[in-house]
Amino acid sequence: MKKLVIGSLVAAIVISGGIGINALANDDNVNVSNTQSEKLIGIEKAKEVALKEAKGIIESVELEKDNGKTFYEVDIDGEKSIEYEVRVDAYNAKVLNVKEDKDDDDDNDLDKVAPNTKLITEAKAIEIAQKQIKGTLVEIELDSDDGRYEYELELNTAKGEAEFTIDATTGEIIEYELDDDNDNDRYDD
Known about the structure:
Blueprint: H1 2-26, H2 43-53, E1 57-66, E2 69-77, E3 82-89, E4 95-102, H3 122-132, E5 136-145, E6 148-157, E7 160-167, E8 173-179, E9 184-188
Antiparallel strand pairs: 1-2, 1-5, 2-3, 3-4, 5-6, 6-7, 7-8, 8-9
């Protein structure tokens, strides 16, 4: 009788441990399959992969996590008023999906950049932001506001989330906001 009770107890412990490990593996906050040694492919690689799937002008790139998957969401303005959303796995560069939609955004005039307009590169905009505060790029977008082209970008930093608006022609920081848990610092020009 003692052996039966001990055997049942051991079986219950093993089963409950397996259920606990399975629950951890399915938790969005714990990514068992992606170890510390795996590195993100980076925004440039994500853009390159996305442009092979959909032709056009990249509007934004954002690092996302959903259902345990980490991916770059690349928004592309295509020809004939079609916009694409391409999701690229952040670790292996495989295309997860491509969504195509009619572009109803009448105020987006990024495709109307005058040929002689000299814009700084995304890399330069990131460099300017990281001189202000070190961090990992999460999102970058080229936008037009009040007749001026701007890079809007977000960095994850040791101090919290940093958001920048940088003039895409001059490289001037127009707006900088650090959202830490203690207080909000905002700098506008």
